[in-house]
Design brief:
- The chain has about 260 residues and is of the alpha/beta class.
- Helix content is about 45%, strand content about 20%.
- It folds into 2 domains: about 1-30 and about 115-225, Lambda Exonuclease, Chain A, CATH 3.90.320; about 30-105, no CATH class.
- Strands 1, 2, 3, 4, 5 and 6 form a 6-stranded mixed sheet that branches.
- A hairpin with a 2-residue loop joins strand 2 (about 115-130) and strand 3 (about 135-145).
- The relative contact order is 0.16.
- Bound molecules: iron/sulfur cluster.
- Iron/sulfur cluster binds near residues 237, 242 and 251.
- The site of iron/sulfur cluster has 14 residues, from helix 2, helix 10 and helix 11.
């Protein structure tokens, strides 16, 4: 039996550009540590602490934890897209709005109540089935699974999302609902101290369709092709975001670091 493991985030990469996904899968390139990642990770670390704590935590403690996180890991950032102080301000503001609007109000919120976490940052792995001699396994980590079964995911982008786009096309909600056998997924978007919540339902039909999406990737993964299809159409195909381009491969080999 051949076991193929699909990490949820890698599925997104594959759908954006199979060739980038191939290079990352075989560790031919690596995503650079960026200030965007640091901003999100610092907020995640503080929320994880709050979710795992048996008693109510103070906002000051979360701010301190996040500030320590940023200070500790800032030396690992290779690509700074924000000034250090501005990044820290955004982390603090995002934690403040999460704390006052979600954590403190919790189950008393009229819309989108946040119940205490049954689990935080818990890794999962679940089979997507066995076909032929292949066992396809989905892996990932859910930010916060609440006591009422709602899956919450914290995002720290620079701007709000379009809800209708996420409801139609978001992959992560499919993956998590499938893996944890749940239906309700909420994207909690924290952007510059503002809060947006996008509620997404993934009933069985949607999860079944997702299983087929994953299996559609298997022939490519199992092929011994030296390259996989390139996809230039989208924001991801640029020296700013693609590690293959940054490594001077693919389009980067021909167009260099400043093509436009
Ligand atoms: S440069 Fe563009 S086409 Fe090439 S791997 Fe990166 S995203 Fe894909």
């Amino acid at each position: 039996m051949i076991e193929i493991r699909l990490r949820q985030s890698w599925i997104n990469t594959f759908l954006n550009c199979p060739e980038q996904a191939r290079q990352e899968r075989y560790k031919l390139v690596e995503q650079k540590e960026s200030s965007d990642l640091l901003r999100g990770n610092a907020v995640h670390a503080a929320i994880e602490f709050a979710g795992g704590s048996p008693s109510v935590v103070e906002l000051e403690d979360l701010h301190q934890l996040a500030e320590d996180y940023v200070r500790t890991y800032s030396s690992e950032v290779e690509v700074w897209r924000h000034e250090y102080d501005k990044l820290l301000d955004t982390v603090m503001a995002n934690l403040s709005v999460w704390y006052s609007e979600l954590y403190i109000l919790g189950a008393t919120r009229a819309e989108d109540p946040l119940l205490p976490a049954a689990s935080v940052e818990e890794p999962f792995q679940k089979s997507l089935g066995i076909r032929g001699n292949v066992n396809l396994i989905l892996t990932g980590t859910a930010d916060w699974v609440a006591e009422d079964g709602v899956i919450w995911d914290w995002k720290n982008p620079s701007r709000f999302y379009e809800p209708w786009e996420k409801k139609r096309w978001d992959i992560q909600s499919h993956a998590y609902c499938y893996a944890l056998d749940k239906t309700e997924f909420k994207l909690c978007v924290l952007a510059n101290g503002q809060l947006q919540i996008i509620s997404i339902n993934r009933p069985k039909e949607w999860r079944d369709a997702f299983v087929e999406l994953c299996w559609s990737m298997v022939p490519t993964i199992m092929s011994d092709a030296e390259t996989w299809p390139q996809n230039w159409s989208g924001w991801h195909c640029s020296p700013k975001w693609c590690p293959v381009w940054q490594a001077g491969k693919c389009r980067g080999e021909h167009l260099g670091e400043n093509p436009w």
